[in-house]
Sequence to fold (215 residues):
Amino acid sequence: MPQNQINIAILDDHQIIIDGLKLLLESDSNINVVFEATSGSIFLRKLTEIDRIVDIVLLDLMMPEISGFEMALMLKKDYPEIKIIVLSMNIDGKSITELKAKAGIKGFLSKSVDKTELMLAIMTVNSGEEYFSQEAEREMDNYEKISKELEQITLTKREIEIIRLIDKGLINKEIAKKLFISEQTVTTHRKSILRKTGAHNVSTLLNFARKAHII
Fold:
C-alpha cells in the first residue's frame, strides 16, 4: 500500500453510483476506498468500526433517513479532520453556500463529473485546499448577487403571499378572495412588487422569486 494513499469513504443511496465511483477511483494506486454505505446509519456505524483514518468522504445530498446536509454537519462536529466533497445532481447556489459556511465542505461536484476532474478535486482537497466545480462557483456567485439585491428590496409579508399565489396561477380576483382583500388592493400590491423587484412581467417576477427562494 502506497505510503501517501488517500483513504476515501462513499455515501450514496444508489449502489450503481457507488460502483461507478469505485471503478474510477480504484484504478488509481493513490486511492483506497475504505468503505461505502447506502444510508446514513450504516455509514456512521462503519465509520466508528473502521480501524484506519478516513481522509475524504464523497457525499450525496439527497439521502433518505439522514440527509447529506445533516450528515455533513455531523461530520464537522464529530470528525472535523475528515474532508467532505459533495457529489450532487442539484447544483444550487444557496445549498452550496450554506454547506460551505455551516458544514465546512471542501468541494462540490456534479454527479456527471468525469474521472479527470474527480481526481483533481480529490487531490486538491487532500492537499488542504478547496475544489468547487466551475458550475458550482458560478451558482454561488449568482446566489451572492441575488442575496445582495434582496438586501436592497423590502417585500412585505403580504407581497410575498401574493407572489406565491401568482406562482400557483391565481388571477387577481382569486387572490383577493383567498386573502379577503379587494381586487384593487391586489392590483396595488402587484404594482408595488413589480416596482420593487424591477420585474417587467409575471415571468421575470417568478424567475426572480425562484432565485431568491421566495417560491
The mean pLDDT is 92. The radius of gyration is 22 Å. Residues 106 and 123 are 12 Å apart (CA to CA).
